[in-house]
Amino acid sequence: MLLLISALVVFALPFAAPVFAQNPTPPSPARSPAVQFVPVEKDIKLEVLDRGGTGRPLVLLAGLGGTAHVFDKFARKLTSRYHLFGITRRGFGASSTPPPVPASYTADRLGDDVLAVCAYLRLQRPILVGHSIAGEELSSLGSRHPEKIAGLVYLDATSAYAFYDPSQGDFLLDLYELQDKLRDLGSRDRVANSGGALDRRPVVSELRLTLLPRFEKDLEVWQNDVQGVPPPPPIHGSKTARDWAPVLIFAGERKFTQIPVPVLAIIAVPHDFSFVRDPELRAAWDRQRMSAQANAFERGVPTAHVVRLAHANHLIYQSNEADVLREINMFVTKLPE
Fold first, then answer.
1. Cβ atoms of 126 and 150 closer than 8 Å
2. What is the pLDDT of residues 212-265, one digit of tens each?
3. CA distances, 290 to each of 156, 256, 269, 286 (Å)
């Protein structure tokens, strides 16, 4: 199962360009925040930074591969207004790494980790600020526990893992749904348990009318994206439990379509895709990924204020620090206590 998931994720990497676009730059030296390890599940503890500060509680969540420490420089600009915290998600940094099974890294499981930390620290309706893949944790909590959150801030974090637009589709998310439907359709256990009276007509109708046409479109877009891109290198050697964490996070994505809380989304549009050499491919990714998804997020989340920053890079809190700080402060001042 893990090898299949790994292969599928590698196949889909062009769809995750913003996640892998860059690595965070090392933080500059500063006074170390208070560190504690908070239990969120049996035998699982997360590294939590308490940076101090005064005001409303604000929690920072890093992108894929990052830890709470990537915000060290940026966070110093926020402590004059907020009581600031940071969480390193499971599988990374000093946090615990659970066994590499899909259930350990679903979007809702990661969201529950954040909720458990907030409960442990007794944070009342915090503001959550997430970069990149952390958008799925924000959307998970915003859709399931809106009463426990004052607001959500997405820092270049509104890709399909944070908000699913059926008109655009998404390769991985649509693939997983298609796999589930086909599995249900051909399940011998279901046929046996039904005594041979299993009605497949609803599933067949959904496959023909919706899921298969949508996935065919996904494949066409993917094929256009990878033209001129060299194939991924072969995977050598065995993987540790920590190596599996990014793969399983991708496999644990789900479709979020409603986020009924106040939202600020700061998005790089047009995006700085300077790491992609082909100018036509850069333009296609910007048009098909960033611009279209930003528009879909704005249409689909009525509570969202969407800010587009031209030619910012994926580490938007570094490339456009002043803009991001200004927008966060304006957003928070409008939130009810």
1. yes
2. 999 999 888 888 777 766 777 776 766 888 899 999 999 999 999 999 999 999
3. 9, 17, 6, 5
Find residue 45's DSSP bridge partners.
39
Alpha-carbon distances of 33 from 68, 71, 298, 314, rounded to whole Å: 10, 11, 35, 25
**The two structure tokens encoding residue 58:** 């604000």
Phi, psi of 128 (to 5 degrees): -105, 130
In DSSP notation, 143-189 reads HH-GGG-SEEEEES--STTT---TTT--HHHHHHHHHHHHHHHH-HH
- Can you read off the two tokens belonging to residue 169? 């589709």
Which amino acid is located at 108 in the chain?
A: D
Task: Tell me how far CA of residue 206 lies from CA of 162, 202, 218, in angstroms.
Answer: 24, 6, 17
Q: pLDDT tens-digit profile of 318-336?
A: 999 999 999 999 999 999 9
Instruction: Return the minimum-mean-pLDDT range out of 16-25, 85-94, 207-216.
Output: 16-25
Integer-rounded Cα Rg, in Å, for the chain is 20
| Alpha-carbon gap, residue 255 to 169, rounded angstroms | 10
